[in-house]
Design a protein that fits this description.
alpha+beta, globular, 12 strands, 8-stranded antiparallel sheet, about 40% strand, homodimer
Chain lengths: ~180, ~180
């Protein structure tokens, strides 16, 4: 794997822009992966992330049971894979094998890192109070991996298979973190 | 105002891609506005949105007290205004006046719509259980306004005044909502 560890304090710079993610779980039989657009940062450091899953998602019960996942940031070139992951359930299919994704062992959690993604975050569930009512898990990022200089082109889902690519960069003077 | 009402069922298509928002509150003395990147959809319909605010944000106490806000989606041409809103506090400044934003009366809430933004959502707080621990409010969108054909270029904050613009659009066949 050609990714290296980066500072947990910088995780928000990856997730705050709202890219679609691939959420991977270890699972009982085999690892699984789902497309996730419903996520937000909750705290800078330690980085906390709210993830909203549907109760009918196969990953919902895996995340409930395992309490661990990885959040992986796909570059725009993986758009077909993202759509494929979003359109199939892990109940019926080994999505890693079917869609050519490579699971790599993580350092701190049982869920796999997805090698093809530009960045991968190892996460543990730390807050379940809104899981029953809203499907909202808060996870803590415990280790962060990134390919040097990536991601530069992220995917943002606008519904029904329409994506926008965020690529053009602006840099303004700002005191905002 | 040249915006028209659109279907609540389509709200997620605006927020799911993760654009930076301008959150406006009515306030006791005057309306206020803050830049917000920490938001995610929680439910399609009625549309529920989780918004994470810092306890030190002036808007935090306004949202706690009023229980209402608007979420406004700025186009990329408003980037200077977004940064200005993010770098000043409503405690010391009338940000609407200082940054040339036009408040318009909303239909269902006391907080104003921001005329210059491409879309504006009227919201009421419906879940406060994670406010104390995580600054996380869940709001329900009760009315949605959009300028025809907008937004086409949204801003995505990557930390420290760096933004990416999402504009290039891909359309893939997909069964995903």
């Amino acid at each position: 794997m050609d990714k290296t560890i980066f500072e947990l304090a910088q995780v928000y710079q990856l997730l705050e822009p709202g890219p679609v993610l691939l959420l991977a779980t270890a699972g009982r039989r085999r690892p699984n992966v789902m497309a996730l657009s419903w996520q937000t940062m909750v705290e800078f450091e330690p980085p906390l992330v709210a993830c909203v899953l549907g109760r009918s998602d196969y990953s919902f019960e895996a995340l409930q049971r395992d309490g661990e996942c990885t959040l992986n940031v796909p570059g725009a070139e993986l758009v077909d894979t993202v759509v494929a992951c979003g359109n199939h359930s892990g109940r019926d299919l080994d999505k890693f094998a079917a869609f050519g994704l490579t699971p790599r062992p993580a350092a701190m959690v049982a869920a796999p890192l997805i090698d093809e993604c530009d960045a991968s975050l190892e996460c543990r569930v730390v807050e379940r109070d809104l899981v029953e009512r809203h499907g909202l898990f808060i996870v803590e990022v415990v280790r962060a991996w990134r390919r040097a200089g990536q991601p530069q082109r992220t995917l943002h889902h606008c519904g029904h298979g329409t994506f926008r690519i965020a690529s053009e960069t602006l840099q303004l003077p700002s005191a905002m973190r």
